[in-house]
Amino acid sequence: MKKSIMRIFRGGIVLPLLLTAGPALAASCLNGGCHQSLVTPRHLHGPVAAEMAGATGCIACHTPKGKVCSKNQAGEFTFDKKGKEMCLLCHGAEMATEHTTTQKNCLRCHNPHGSSKSSYMLREDQ
């Protein structure tokens, strides 16, 4: 599947978003669907914001495997990479900070979907 990159400026941060035709769409996953709670944070991660805008963003991290996601049925997804390696696919050197090289688990402090606390996607308990 051919992917094109669009950069959206949000809060002074450039977020890369994948805009492709794919199985996950806001109408089925986020707006009243299985994952509506993912869009309640004040600051949304770029791929989640893309889904809300009608583009496909979930597939930036979640790779379809098996059943396709729809309003009435949950899809099956997997990950191509695990942990920090997944984050580094998009958040490479241009977005790295000093702790990027020393920390092993990004998700310990950051929520991959969004945060009401911080535009840096910090978890509420951090």
Report the helical percentage: 10-25%
Q: How many β strands by DSSP?
A: 6
Report the order of strands and helices. Answer: EEHEHEEHHE
Question: What is the spatial order of strands in the main beta sheet?
Answer: 1-2
How would you describe this structure to a colleague?
The protein is 18% helix and 17% strand. By secondary structure, the chain is α+β, with helices and mostly antiparallel strands. It has one domain (4-115). A two-stranded antiparallel sheet has the order 1-2. A two-stranded antiparallel sheet has the order 3-6. The longest helix has 7 residues, at 46-52. The radius of gyration is 14 Å and the shape is globular. The N and C termini lie far apart (38 Å). The relative contact order is 0.16. Mean pLDDT is 75; it is low at 1-22.
What's the quick description here?
With 126 residues, the chain is α+β, with helices and mostly antiparallel strands. Helix content is 18%, strand content 17%.
Which features would summarize this protein structure in a list?
126 residues, alpha+beta, 18% helix, globular, disordered N terminus
Task: Describe the secondary structure blueprint for this structure.
Layout: E1 4-10, E2 13-19, H1 26-29, E3 43-44, H2 46-52, E4 63-64, E5 77-78, H3 84-90, H4 98-102, E6 114-115
Antiparallel strand pairs: 1-2, 3-6, 4-5
